[in-house]
Design goal:
This protein is about 30% helix and about 25% strand. By secondary structure, it is an alpha/beta fold. It binds pyridoxal-5'-phosphate.
Length: about 425
């Protein structure tokens, strides 16, 4: 466990979080490097003995220090934009271990990815294949691709994070995909080396992914029978994490063991693109209580972190545990925990029993390492918070707090 109480004070690894708040200020994101590496290795170790590549999904948290940590641990990367590739390269990641996913790649992004020599594209339409082929032809290179297959399984998650149903914008319908592989034979700068799917995010049951894998294995058989040299299966990301103590998140090792069973004797390299399950549990957002306020019917805890820092509660109705940095033993209070932004949707928790905190007290919003800072904005002209990486008893600021000058950078009157 990377976040634990010792003598009533909340620690990240061997660092008291109150020390970080005192020196870096609040709000501030804090990440445990141990937690990130443990989760990455849980995937990597469970795949020992078969050809594989764990490609961390950069969009979950694209901070350079985290990409660098994972690159050094041997991770590949799943990217969805040219900007993410730029970050991977800056962080020392190996482009030959990068897969480029996403439904709307631009010509400039495709060209940049080819120039960097990425591993492969996960393509989502026939028009995109033609574009990649034309640009690869201009560059005089050949590149591997997988089609992102929409296997038409229900991921059973929030509607915004389900991606594998026929009506979703993602991928190519499994009943159409063989025709697309067939027509792609005429594209001379592309080689169909893989199949890929990604059915959604925050999956708390792995059975939809197992159903999808069954369909994908059958597809691999059919494609090979018609002469396509399919070498890898990219199973996407999507494994859920426990946001509530009662959530039963799938165990990474068990999930990979079931996946391996599906692939047995298929002679396929496995690629996997986990994001949330690697960084989600590794991060907290520290915030200070500004005010307490009561309307007679409702109790509010007003804190200095807001929806611009963490939009997940407002966007996905997501639950994040909010715990005090110092345990007091006092009875809790039922309250809305809200930020300073001028939106009713600006809340971190609603009608939640939280510690009976007072102005000046510090709290940690938990499980925010994924889709937290990456979705932060400057709404209400608020500066984005700093990020801190903890390694054992050491910690360092890996992104400084924005200043007012940062807010107007690039603007002209
Ligand atoms: C978002 C995304 C992922 C990562 O999903 P997680 O739920 O964070 O593991 C992987 N692959 C693709 C194509 C994605 O869009």
């Amino acid at each position: 466990m990377s976040f634990t109480y010792e003598q009533s004070a909340l620690y990240c690894e061997a660092v008291a979080l109150a020390d970080i708040a005192a020196r870096a200020g609040t709000p501030v994101y804090v990440y445990s490097s141990q937690s990130i590496l443990d989760s990455f290795r849980a995937y990597d170790d469970a795949l020992t003995g078969i050809p594989h590549m764990v490609c961390y999904a950069v969009k979950a948290n694209s901070t350079l220090a985290i990409l660098s940590l994972l690159a050094k641990a041997g991770s590949g990367f799943d990217i969805v934009s040219g900007g993410e590739l730029f970050r991977v390269v800056k962080a020392g990641g190996d482009p030959s271990r990068v897969v480029f996913s996403g439904v709307g790649k631009t010509p400039e992004e495709v060209d940049y990815a080819l120039a960097q020599g990425i591993h492969s594209f996960n393509a989502e339409s026939e028009a995109e294949l033609s574009l990649i082929d034309a640009i690869a032809n201009r560059r005089g290179v050949k590149v591997s691709f997988a089609l992102r297959v929409n296997p038409d399984v229900d991921a059973v998650t929030h509607p915004y994070t389900a991606t594998g149903l026929r009506d979703h914008k993602f991928g190519i319908d499994i009943s159409d995909v063989e025709g697309v592989y067939e027509r792609a034979r005429s594209l001379k700068n592309l080689v169909a080396h893989g199949v890929s799917c990604h059915i959604g995010s925050q999956l708390l049951s792995t059975s939809p992914m197992m159903d999808a894998s069954d369909k994908m294995m059958a597809l691999v058989g059919r494609l090979r029978a018609s002469g396509h040299c399919i070498q890898y299966f990219d199973a996407g990301g999507g494994l859920g994490v426990s946001y509530k103590p009662a959530d039963q998140a799938p165990e990474i090792g068990q999930f990979i063991a079931s996946l391996r069973a599906k692939l047995a004797a298929k002679d396929l390299k496995v690629m996997i693109e986990p994001g949330r399950s690697i960084v989600g549990p590794a991060g907290v957002l520290l915030t200070r209580v500004l005010y307490r306020k009561s309307t007679g019917r409702k109790e509010f805890v007003i804190v200095d972190a807001a929806m611009n820092d963490l939009i997940r509660p407002a966007l996905y109705q997501s639950h994040h545990e909010i715990i005090p940095l110092r345990e007091t033993g006092r009875a809790g209070v039922v309250a809305d925990v809200v930020g300073p932004v001028c939106e009713t949707g600006d809340f971190l928790a609603r009608g939640r029993t939280v510690a009976n905190v007072m102005p000046g007290d510090l709290m940690a919003v938990c499980t925010v390492g994924a889709y937290g800072f990456v979705q932060a904005s400057n709404y209400n002209s608020r500066t984005r918070p700093p990020e801190v990486l903890v390694e054992g008893s050491q910690w360092r600021v890996v992104r400084t707090r924005e200043t007012y000058d940062d807010l107007i950078r690039g603007e002209q009157i």
